[in-house]
Amino acid sequence: MNPIRLYYIIGYPRSGTTLLGNVIGSMPEYIHVGEISRVWKTGEKSEIPDRRCGCIKMIPECDFWVPVMQESFEQVKSETGEEIDNFRLARIRDRIIYEKPVNDSDKELFTLFTGIFYRKIQEHSHADLIVDSSKDLSYAKFLESTGLFDITYIHIVRHIGGVGLSRQKKLKKETSGGKVKLNYKYFLYDLLNWVYMNRKISIFGKGKKYHRISYDEFTFRPKELLMDKLDNDLSKIFVNDHTFSSRNLHTVMGNRNRFKKGEIEIRKDRRWEKQLNGRDKALANFFNKFA
Question: What pTM was estimated for this model as a whole?
Answer without folding.
Answer: 0.93
